[in-house]
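Field: COMPLEX_INPUT
Field: COMPONENT_COUNT = two
Field: RESIDUE_TOTAL = 554
Field: MODE = joint
Values follow.
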Amino acid sequence: MASVNLLSTQGLSRNFGGLKAVSEVDFDLPEGQVRALIGPNGAGKTTFVGMLCGRISASAGRVSFLGEDVTTLPAHKRIARGMAYTFQITSIFGKLSLRENVALAVRRRLGRDAGQVTAEVETSLSRVGLLDRVDQIADDLSYGHQRLLEIAMGLGQKPKLLILDEPTQGLADSEIEEFKSLIRSMAGQTTVLLIEHNMNVVMEMADVITVLNFGEVLAEGTPEEIHNNADVQSAYLGTG
Amino acid sequence: MSDVRKSLVLHGGLIALLLVLHFILPDYHHGNLARVMVLAVYAMGYNVLFGYTGLLSLGHAMFFAAGMYGMGLTIQHLGFSAEAALVAGVLAAFVLSTVVGFLALRTTGVAFMIVTLMFAQTGYLTILYFGEWTRGDEGFVIQKASRVIAGFDVSDPGNRYLAALVLFAVCMAVILKLVQAPFGRVLIAIRENEERARMLGYDVFRHKLAAIIISGTMSGAAGAFYGLLFGYAGASFASVQYSIFPLLWVLLGGAGTVTGPLVGALFMFYLIDITSGLTSAYMLFAGIALVLLTVFARQGMVGEIRRRLAPWLP
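Field: COMPLEX_OUTPUT
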């Protein structure tokens, strides 16, 4: 079997006391795919991606990224290998300018090359439509713009795998449209793992959808398959 | 004018002003300012950790004292020259801050404050315990003959002032370079949002450890110079009070600003100097000043100037 999986997990589990938040998840993410991870609240989505990027340690199982076992690597080393993570609850440097926020994301790769840093900061900000606010303080942005800034920080890292935890939460409809075209523009270059509640976004953007329920994989397939899956409908989509 | 140039003019101008003051200040204030400059170096070191990295240490007196005793004891008992003794002092602070950093960084928040406080108490008690060599509370005088740096006798007030100014200028340049470099930007990022900094791929532990080492070593350099320039090493410099001082200076002057530590140290020095002439309850005035500051200028004097007038201030 040709190993084209960028990321995969085997038996990945996490217990919080007696609660199995994530249980024995086997997951493969091929390079270049846009994958959506959906499931009801409390299904273990954020815990699962937390284990992928190292924010949360796994109770059992393993994670491999780019063909190497990264299960015991601390978060910052996994990020340095090409993951990027955007937080469900907006996490930016509120007292710093947008420029500095994104520069921090860019500089880890580029170091001291100030000219190149500036160029990439401006590219990342223009891709989310915030370039005209480059010198504003991040706290002064509206909530939706802060979400976009967070995505720009993800882009600035030029990751191989971009993990977006509910990126469209709190965005206006027009901003969601822009977000969709942004994801489309990355198609093929960046592998995207998207936790998302907005079904329109999921059905439209994802190549493949994985459904988590009670910490286990309930179903996996194309948007169409998932849409017609009876288990998913009863667990998550209501009566469909 | 670009921000870099403004900053160069401001900080260069400050050094030039301090040099001019050397020639015009009356003896009393001239002596005070030499003392304040060395104490400001201590505060600048403290500010690297507190102001820029966001880690509140309550034990920096141990680094100041490590520098002072590393310098003083090697002169006193090993017959080191002033230059070698200064190196020994700075080295002592470097080693201590590395070890304390490794251990204290296992904690965060309030626990970090307590752990640093306890380490500093251990340091203080160690100095008292080895009273045979350190002369404990009483301390010891560093003989005039030993106080010669590169041919300049620093027991002479003029040379002393200039030595303090050189130390101050060098340390300020280091801080200025540091906070504008990518490394310093990461420290600020850690202060602002540690989890986000980690999830951008930065090794937070390594950066914090480096911040403690830089901070502790600079505080130690201040301690070594203070002992040598003013000819005395004593255990009171390792006491809790001397851990609190740099915190107050930095808060007054402006945490996370390059010139704040000097402004804070100068303000506090003269506040105590003037009010202690009026009443024995002079610490009351220091307290009132702090209360006023927390109410009206939470970011300290220079911090407030930055917020209102000059956002480019590093």
